[in-house]
Amino acid sequence: MVFIHVLRVKCEPLEQSDFLAKQLDSVEVISQAIKAKPTADVGRGSEWHLGNIQEIEKEDAVGFAMGRTAMVTSPRFDETTHDFLEEETKRAPFTLGIFDQRHQACGIIRKPGVSQNATEIAAKLQTLLNATRFPRESNAKIIVDPVRDPTSFIEALQTASAVTRFSFYASRPNPHDVNRLIQRPAEEFTQAAGGERTKVEVEGEDLDRQVLTDLSQAVAAVGETATANVRPEPCARTKRIHLAGNPVSEPVAIDDARGLLFRMLEATREAYDRVRNARLG
């Protein structure tokens, strides 16, 4: 059994539109960037790479390996001279990932020393993908964020005596399955205004819980944030809660005849669908 981080991978248009930019859709830009096998300095002189590309066409997915290289000195005994030596060798710890083209989500195996932290591995993958020419030629930027579990936030909304305020952030348009009541218009406004993010806020005596539940799931699924003011009990003071749950980490069985990448893909889709579409309460 291994666990995967579930990440949302977006491709957002840049502020200045280049009329010479190639008109590629988001999934194609991201997929081409992965298949380019990029190398990039992700900070502190650490060089990371993508490789071992494996397209799974019938499943609309691309598998890959992701890791870093580092020079290390290791002791060695020379059988010919009977001398002990120190020799420099290159180590290359790596992990495996799968890009789900249907949901624009990515599953990456959680591995100590390489990908233990979801936020860190998301930032490294983002740097690698943007190091390729495909986002630049499409006048776009690839954004990678952990998908966070909205369960406790939604439960607090549904069990509160009243919800008096709700706010969320929206970036530029990209994912196909956003909430179309307000999330999509907010994204389109962000792009039209030349902004990076837009904050949307609503206040009332007691806001509709189902509308807020649907929106919270959509916000969590694209890696954005939300807050709410709730009154836990009648006549109690309101308190602020945040959609800042733990990054989703999904178990994957490795003794499956279908193969590890297929199981990672299934787990990524199951986790994403649970965050985006589950009904609580």
Ordered list of secondary-structure elements with their pairings:
Elements: E1 2-13, H1 26-35, E2 39-41, E3 47-56, E4 61-78, E5 83-91, E6 94-100, E7 105-109, H2 118-130, H3 133-137, E8 140-146, H4 151-159, E9 162-170, H5 183-192, E10 198-203, H6 209-221, E11 226-231, E12 239-242, E13 249-252, H7 260-277
Antiparallel strand pairs: 1-7, 1-8, 1-13, 2-3, 3-4, 4-5, 4-6, 6-7, 9-10, 9-11, 11-12
Helix pairs in contact: 4-6, 6-7
Structure description:
With 281 residues, the chain is α+β, with helices and mostly antiparallel strands. It contains 7 helices and 13 strands. The chain has helices at 26-35, 118-130, 133-137, 151-159, 183-192, 209-221, 260-277, and strands spanning 2-13, 39-41, 47-56, 61-78, 83-91, 94-100, 105-109, 140-146, 162-170, 198-203, 226-231, 239-242, 249-252. Strands 1, 2, 3, 4, 5, 6, 7, 8 and 13 form a 9-stranded antiparallel beta sheet that branches. Strands 10-9-11-12 form a 4-stranded antiparallel beta sheet. A hairpin with a 4-residue loop joins strand 4 (61-78) and strand 5 (83-91). The longest helix is centred in the last third of the chain and has 18 residues, at 260-277. The two termini are 30 Å apart.
| SS summary, helix count | 7
Rg for CA atoms: 22 Å
Q: Please give the number of β-strands.
A: 13
> How far from one another are the termini?
30 Å
H/E topology pattern: EHEEEEEEHHEHEHEHEEEH
How can the largest sheet be summarized? 9 strands, antiparallel
